[in-house]
Amino acid sequence: MISNCLKINHAGHLEISGCDTVELAEQYGTPLYVMSEDQIRETCRRYVASFAKNYNGHGKPIYASKAFSCKEIYRIVLSEGLDVEVVSGGELYTALQAGVPSSQIHFQGNNKSTGELTMALENGVGDIVVDNLYELECLEKLAAQRNMTASISFRIKPGIDAHTHEFIRTGQIDSKFGLDLASGEALDALRQAKEMQHIAVKGLHCHIGSQILECAPFVHAAEVMLDFYGKIRNELGMTFEHLNLGGGFGIHYTENDDAIPYENYMEAVSSMVHSKCQELNLELPRIFIEPGRSIVGEAGITLYSVGAIKEIPGVRNYVAIDGGMFDNPRYALYQSAYTCLVANKADKPADYIATIAGKCCESGDLIQEHTPIQKPESGDILAVLSTGAYNYSMASNYNRNLKPACVMVSNGNSRIVIKGETYEDLIRNDV
Ligand code: LLP
Known about the structure:
Helices cover 30% and strands 25% of the residues. The protein has helices at 21-28, 37-55, 71-79, 89-97, 114-122, 133-145, 185-195, 216-236, 263-280, 293-296, 330-334, 423-427; strands spanning 6-8, 14-16, 19-20, 32-36, 59-64, 83-86, 105-107, 127-130, 150-157, 179-180, 199-205, 242-244, 286-289, 300-312, 316-321, 340-342, 352-357, 366-373, 381-385, 405-410, 413-418. Helix 8 (216-236) packs parallel to helix 9 (263-280).
C-alpha cells in the first residue's frame, strides 16, 4: 500500500490505522474524509528528528496549514513541536482558536489585506512573511499607529524552476509570490525595511514549489538564499535569525511517485547550509522548512458510495460516486493522479478500468480517468488514497453539495474532527 497507515484486513477490506473503512462508511456515512492521526504524528516526528540529527535542533518544521486546516490538526502538530504557517485571516483565526501561541505562527500570503495584517499585529503573530513593498509600507504604518514593532521575514524568489505542475511552481521569476533577487527588488526592500522604525527583519524565506520529488532544488535554494544573505550582510550590515526554505516535499499518490524519505531533505540541506555559512563567515541561522502536503497527504483517504455505473462500449466505464470536485477538485484542476480502490473488495484483483465520476453538473467533474479498480457494483465503497492534503481545504459547495465530515483515526479508534455540513449550514448566510 502506498501509505504506512493502510492495509487490507482479514475481511478483505481496506483498513486505516486499525479501522475497517467499510465500517467507518457505515458509521459516519459517505462521502467521508478519514485521516490517520498515527501517521500524521509519525511524519511530524520524522521531520523533527531530522533537525535534531542534522542541524543540532537549531530550527524546526512549520506545518503549512493550507494543506488541511481545522482546529484539531493545529493541536496535533503543535503537540509534536511544530510551528504553524497560515495564509489567511481564516487560517489565522482557526489556529488561534485551537490554542496555537501567536509566537509560533508564521503568516504568509501575497496580498494580505489591511484587516489581516492588523489581526496579525494585534494578536502578536511571531513572523509576518512580507511578500512585497506595498505590504511592507502598510505594515510599517499599521505598526506605527499601534506603537508596535512588527517581526517580519521577506519572501524571496530565488529564481529556481522546480520540476512540478506549473500551477504549483512558485520559485521562478514569473511568479506572483515574493520579491525578485535578480532585479535588485529584494535588496531594495531590505534597504527600505532597515530604515523603518516599526519593522524588525528576523529572516528570509523562499518556497520553490510543491510535490517536488528530488532534493537538489532545495539544496540549490539554500545555496542561493545564503549567497543573498551574505550579500545583505556585506552591503547593509544586516543579520538574520532564521532562514525559511519553504515546503513542497513530494508524496506518493500512486506507486509511480518516487517520493524521497522526508529525512533526506534536512540531511542534504543542512550540509549545504553548513558549508555556505563557513564560506561566507555567517553565523548558522535557524532553519525552518514548511511541509504541508507531506504531513497530511498520505495520512488521508476519502470514502465514497458507488452509485450509477455506465459502461459505454468501446468508450469508457463511468463509475459515479456521491462526491466529486466539490470535495476533491484536484483532478479537475491539475489532472492529479490518484490510487482508487473498492474498499470492500480490496483483496480482489484490480482488473476493471474505470473513470470515477463525481455528481456535479459538469463533465470535467472526474476524480480519475481510466484507472484500474476492482469490479464495482452500486453500493460498494470506493476509496481514493492520499487525499489528506488540499482536498478538504479546497472543497467547495458547488451545486450546493455539502462538505463531508472528517474523521480522525488512531489505533483502531475513530472520532469526528470536522462535522459534515447540513442543509441549514448552506442557507445560514442567505438573506
Ligand atoms: N510554504 C509556502 C509559502 C507555500 O506556498 C506552500 C504551498 C507550502 C509551504 C506547502 O507546500 P507543500 O509542502 O504542501 O507542498 N493546491 C495545490 C498545492 C498548492 C501549494 C501552495 N503552497 C495542490 O493541490 O497540489
